[in-house]
Every structure is written in C-alpha cells, then in structure tokens.
Amino acid sequence: MPPIRVAQHARPAPVEPQAAFAFPKDHHLVVTTETHVWSWDHRGLTNAFGSGSGGILAAKEAKDGSGLLAVADDQVVVLHDAIRGKDRSYRLKGTDGQIRLLEYSNDSKSLFFTTTLQNAVQSYSLRHF
Fold it and tell me: Which InterPro entries match (predicted)?
C-alpha cells in the first residue's frame, strides 16, 4: 500500500466575498413558510400574510399584478388582497384532502388546485371577486 501524503502547510484557498444580491426593481420572490408568506424585492423582505396556526401549505400570487394572494391550509383557501390588506375566506367546494398546489390562470380569473386525495385538477372561478 502506498504511503499517505500529508500536506505540510495545509491552508484552505482564500474565498472571495460575493457581492450582495440585489433584485431588479421589476422582480420579486414569494417565500412561503408554515406561518408566513414573505415578499422579497429590491426594498427588502416584507410580510405579505401571516398565520397564527402555522398551517400554511401553499401560496400563490395572481399573475395580473392585482396583488391577490391565494393562501391554503389543509381545509381553506384564503384570498388575500395584499395591496389593500383585506382577506376574504373561501372554502373551496369539493376539496378532499390537503391542497398541494395552487396556480392562477394567465388572466388570474381562475384558480386551479390539486389535493392529496384526487387525481384531477380542480378550478375555482374568481371572476366576481
């Protein structure tokens, strides 16, 4: 067996500090945790929605720039107007199982979702919201 070589003066290579990431002004990131939905943009991190029960499973922002945020726990989807700070709570009919995925249509007039117990994509109309 060949002998093991050990470096006499092992030092880690110097690491160059990276510049802080800055979001472009026309972009942002929505971060969902069990208790909050955060919006991270060029101004920093903003709390868009909070849940005292710690049961947030999914969240999705409307694609039309209206500020409408759909936030789901295991039984209810809350439609939150992030610009005006208003909530409207809707229990989506036919939701068996926990909601896994939320998605808006391109015009944000429909909300699509899937659950843990159904193999179909369900739709909820938001035309009168």
Answer: WD40/YVTN_repeat-like_dom_sf
